[in-house]
Design goal:
This protein is an alpha/beta fold. It is built from eight helices and five strands, in the order βαβαααβαβααβα. It has a five-stranded parallel sheet, with helices on both faces.
Length: 166
């Protein structure tokens, strides 16, 4: 089983934090969007645009299944919580919800390829937060503030996990 799974809105820093945690712990990390890209032989964003959200969510679930079976740190796509099966799998793992203010997220995604936020990033982010926040909370051990440096966020995660182990 994976050591840690990170969930949260697009642009909150899941991939960067996963990589940092894996370096700290001397293990591998995986981004489910990268797994999807290998499965469908194009970027996850392109596949989402071309195949639509239902097809994308099916591939995302396959990526989550394969990622959870390995001793690693997993960065998930922001919408992995939208399916009941995704929420079930996340609830059984050591899952942390990364979150920060919308303004911070928007500053991070300015040059990114985020199909669900195109056209109206602020409005899209507000909608995604409203739709997903309760699910992030339900599947996670805790919410970690992710607006600091990678080292700060990683330290917060390690402190939380140390407290949970007690």
């Amino acid at each position: 089983m994976s050591r840690l799974v990170l969930v949260g809105l697009p642009g909150v820093g899941k991939s960067s934090v996963a990589q940092t945690m894996a370096q700290r712990w001397g293990c591998e990390w995986v981004d489910t969007d990268d797994v999807i890209a290998r499965l469908v032989e194009r970027s996850a964003a392109d596949f989402l645009r071309e195949a639509g959200e239902p097809a994308f969510r099916q591939q995302e679930l396959l990526a989550l299944y394969s990622s959870l079976g390995v001793d690693n740190v997993v960065a998930t796509g922001g919408g992995v919580v939208t399916t009941p099966e995704g929420r079930r799998l996340l609830s059984e793992a050591t899952t942390i919800w990364l979150d920060c203010a919308d303004e911070v997220i928007l500053s991070r995604i300015v040059d990114g390829d985020r199909p669900l936020l195109q056209g109206d990033p602020q409005g899209g982010l507000t909608r995604l937060r409203r739709e997903r926040e309760a699910w992030y909370r339900a599947v996670s051990l805790a919410r970690i503030e992710a607006s600091g440096t990678l080292e700060d966020v990683s330290t917060r995660i390690e402190q939380l996990l140390a407290e949970v182990k007690r």
